[in-house]
Amino acid sequence: MNNGKTFIVTGAASGIGAETCRLLKEQGATVIGVDRDPTGNADRFFEADLGDPASIDTLVAELPEGADGLANIAGVPPTRAAEAVLKVNFYGLQRLTLAIVPKLADGASIANLASLAGFGWPNAVDQVKRAMKVSLDDDVAGFCRAEGLDNAEGGRSYFLSKEALIVWTMQNRWTWRDRNITMNCISPGPVDTPILGDFLQTLGERAKEDRKHMDRPGRPQDVAPVVAFALSEHAKWFRGANLTVDGGMSGHILSNFHQF
């Protein structure tokens, strides 16, 4: 499906990023991996901290031109400080994407890993709008203090980072259509990766209640094929879409919300 293509994958060292690298290579693609931790999962590797603007700018300067797609998979869990969560999960992703678009090939695809945690963005529109007025160069720590995110229970900073990502993806559905560059996001439910324990710790009883309705947590092998599809030619009429791969959890939430 992606034979002969070249893709950049962030978060390449573990979890969904590592599995996406493996699958894309199996499909015949060349993979350029990005992570804070060195990895042999990719054909080429670049070390970068996606919460650091200088590190992102250095990365963009070093990356080759002409890649056929970008998979933004790197992220940090809700147990991290609110500033770090927003910087890596949204503001750093945003900065990297905007900076790298001029280097992508015409017809390239961008796939952003969001989350079921972003599902409730319509109920948080005002805060999402405020978050989207901030960038990685701004006072993210000050924004977190003003919004009360430092002491918020239940991983609010993580939820906000994914809500903003879904909305930003939707907003940019046609931004680069003169070059046929598309952008979509993928929203997994709970996935059995090294950070699953962080989610269970943060969400507590809420997580236990949600898991009662699922047959099992997701696996990286459930999510990576959706990322690979979003990067492929088969997904070129998806624009600004949010592809849910969550074991039916979003359907469960909607059914309950509308009392079906």
From TrEMBL:
GO molecular function annotations of the record: 3-alpha-hydroxysteroid 3-dehydrogenase [NAD(P)+] activity
EC number: 1.1.1.50
Keyword set, alphabetical order: Oxidoreductase
Identification of the protein by name: 3-alpha-hydroxysteroid dehydrogenase/carbonyl reductase
Species the sequence originates in: Roseibium album
Gene name of the record: hsdA_1
